[in-house]
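Troubleshooting log. The previous structure file for this entry was overwritten by mistake, so regenerating from the original sequence record. Sequence copied from the archived sheet and checked twice against the printout by T.R.
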Amino acid sequence: MNSASQVFLIDSSAIFSGKPLNFDEMMTTSKISDEFQSGGRDYQRFQLLCEKGMKISEPSKESITQVRKAIERFGEQSRLSLADISILALAIDVKKSQQHIPIIVTDDYSIQNIANHIEISIQSMSQKGITKRFKWERRCRGCRRKVSDAVDVCPDCGSSLTTIVKKKYTLKKHK
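Regenerated output below.
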């Protein structure tokens, strides 16, 4: 895999940063593209990237399933959108092809967290980037019960839920 070239997978946060994206090879997904349909400066930046050769590709269903399992395992369900899932899944597909080394360009800490867990490199634009990996857990504010269901209130006592760090991990370095 040493002869593989890098491909930069562009998340919407990288475009929203307003910083120049001068990468030789760029990709994104249609879910990310959908976030730039309203016009304005960010829409123009997105269109410019497409004119510069950014490819729009769709991730495989298998990779989407793999990402969803990682999201569930590390408690990021309420933090990641379908667009976020799509860029992570596309990175898995690119990595599996062994023709390119995927690097997700994002300032989104939840994307960075899952990318690190699934061994995908990231590059931040405006933020420092994550320094630790986390596993999150939802708990009831009242009775402190762990809640894994997709609900807004505790099924036992009716109190609101909060998300807490269950475990911190050392950040993995990826080649």
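The mean pLDDT is 86. Archived copy saved in two places this time.
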